[in-house]
Specification:
Elements (H helix, E strand, L loop, with lengths): L1 E3 L3 E3 L4 E2 L4 E2 L4 E2 L4 E2 L4 E2 L4 E2 L4 E2 L3 E3 L4 E2 L4 E4 L12 E4 L4 E2 L4 E3 L7 E4 L4 E2 L4 E2 L4 E2 L4 E2 L4 E2 L4 E2 L4 E2 L4 E2 L4 E2 L4 E2 L4 E2 L7 E5 L2 E6 L1 H6 L4 H15 L5 H11 L4 H13 L14
Parallel strand pairs: 2-5, 3-6, 4-7, 5-8, 6-9, 7-10, 8-11, 9-12, 10-13, 11-14, 12-15, 13-16, 14-17, 15-18, 16-19, 17-20, 18-21, 19-22, 20-23, 21-24, 22-25, 23-26, 24-27, 26-28
Antiparallel strand pairs: 1-2, 28-29
Length: 271
């Protein structure tokens, strides 16, 4: 291993573009390639046979395992070589053969937050915004322009349609087909997904008190079990349940779904 700046280790077979910036304590494994304009934060470990393409930023204390490709060109017919980016935060784990593409559209970025684990063969498409504290089990595929909010859990072999929004603290069952927005705090499953229950354990583990959890549970019953339509359910929730920041967030999420197309609030409506 070649030692650079005391604690930085680069295997002699690795290829590092001269414009790349490596922090202190970075490790680059055998046959890995680090492209133009890449920035890697302190303490991050890049294993063997990894490709980190141009304009990719990786934060501190991340682990990128064998065969991963980060910052590759987007799989988008509208992409014509414009300057785009991939920005990854701190303390992320990318297991074997993870692929994350940079964005399409001049100056745009695909963004990954902090403290996420993407297990083997996961894919995140162009222009996605992925929050923090997220777990993706093996073979999860996220299409372009998807927004995943904090602390979502994906089971294995889940496919997510483009422009879907997944609310925070949601859980998605393995083998699910996600073609519409997933409401926050929900457990969903199926092909296509349907709301099965409230993520009570996730709420409790994240410090949401029993009174607020009870209000959210009542709201979910009114929204998904009462036979009311969406407008009626929203009116009943506002009338019957004591407000909380979590409830307000849920209601705003549901209202915004109706502003988009086909159950996806990030997709422009079609007239």
């Amino acid at each position: 291993m070649e030692i650079i700046d005391k604690s930085t280790e680069i295997h002699p077979t690795a290829l590092i573009d001269p414009t790349a910036e490596l922090g202190s304590g970075v490790t680059i494994g055998a046959y890995s390639t680090i492209g133009k304009g890449v920035q890697i934060g302190d303490g991050t470990r890049i294993d063997s046979h990894v490709v980190i393409d141009s304009n990719t930023t990786i934060g501190a204390d991340c682990t990128v395992m064998t065969g991963s490709v980060l910052g590759g060109a987007p799989q988008d017919y509208k992409f014509h070589g414009e300057q785009t980016f991939l920005r990854i935060g701190d303390s992320n784990i990318m297991r074997e053969y993870v692929t994350i593409h940079r964005a399409s559209g001049d100056g745009e970025a695909t963004i990954i937050g902090d403290n996420n684990m993407l297990m083997a063969y996961c894919h995140v498409g162009h222009n996605c915004k992925i929050g923090s504290g997220i777990t993706m089990a093996n073979y999860v595929g996220i299409s372009g322009h998807v927004l995943v909010e904090d602390k979502v859990v994906f089971g294995g072999i889940v496919g997510v349609h483009q422009c879907v929004r997944v609310g925070k603290l949601a859980m998605i069952g393995g083998f699910s087909k996600v073609v519409q927005d997933v409401p926050p705090f929900a457990i969903v499953d199926g092909r296509p997904t349907k709301v099965c229950d409230l993520n009570k354990i996730g709420l409790r583990r994240n410090g949401v008190g029993p009174h607020v959890r009870a209000g959210l549970r009542q709201a979910y019953k009114l929204m998904y079990r009462s036979g009311l339509n969406v407008t009626q359910a929203l009116e009943a929730i506002v009338k019957e349940i004591e407000p909380s920041p979590e409830l307000d967030y849920l209601l705003d999420f549901i209202r915004n779904v109706r502003l988009g197309n086909a159950g996806r609030q990030l997709e422009a409506p079609r007239f």
